[in-house]
Amino acid sequence: MSAGPAMNARPAVGDRFTLVKDPVTTVQLVMYAGASGDFNRIHYDLPYAQEAGLGGVIAHGMLTMGFAAQAVTDWAGPGAVVRDLSARFLIPVRPGDRVTVEGRVDEVREEEGRLVVAVGFEAATAAGRVAAGSGIVVRPTR
């Protein structure tokens, strides 16, 4: 579920956008393992993850990154291209966590007939911030 306005014709520095995901499930983690090819057992095998000292199963970092990418692309809308998306992962996401991604516009400029928008984002659960990052959204000027 996204909240906040989609990127308008001319976003402004300080504009914000939000995406709230349903709680992460172990089934989702198994499906993501299959889709990504990352079958590390810490993502779906509870006893293994506990023996590894993680206190339980943890989500793939790139699943959290996917949530951030969804927040940016949902906001950017059709015709926009998201590039240079990067993040730091701060604490693990676990099954049952509801991830909320909050984004903001940090810079807006025109380059060669294109609108270039620098965005930042933070992802959080009830346990705290799980990731922080940035990206660039590009689209033709209207």
Query: What is the count of distinct domains?
Result: 1
Strand order of the largest sheet: 1-2-4-5-6-3
Shape: elongated
CATH homologous superfamily name?
Hotdog Thioesterase
Q: Which percent bin holds the helix content?
A: 10-25%
Uncertain parts: none
Quaternary structure of the protein: single chain
The count of helical stretches stands at 3
Please tell me about this protein's structure.
With about 140 residues, this protein is α+β, with helices and mostly antiparallel strands. The chain has one domain (about 1-25, about 60-140): Thiol Ester Dehydrase, Chain A (Roll), CATH 3.10.129. The chain contains 3 helices and 6 strands; from the N terminus they run ββαααββββ. About 25% of the residues are buried. The mean pLDDT is about 95. Pfam families: MaoC_dehydratas. This is Dehydratase.
List keywords for this structure.
142 residues, alpha+beta, Thiol Ester Dehydrase, Chain A, 3 helices, 6 strands, 37% strand
Summarize the model shown:
This protein is an alpha+beta fold and 142 residues long.
Q: How do the helices and strands line up, and which of them pair or pack?
A:
Blueprint: E1 2-3, E2 16-20, H1 26-36, H2 46-51, H3 61-76, E3 81-89, E4 100-111, E5 114-125, E6 128-140
Antiparallel strand pairs: 1-2, 2-4, 3-6, 4-5, 5-6
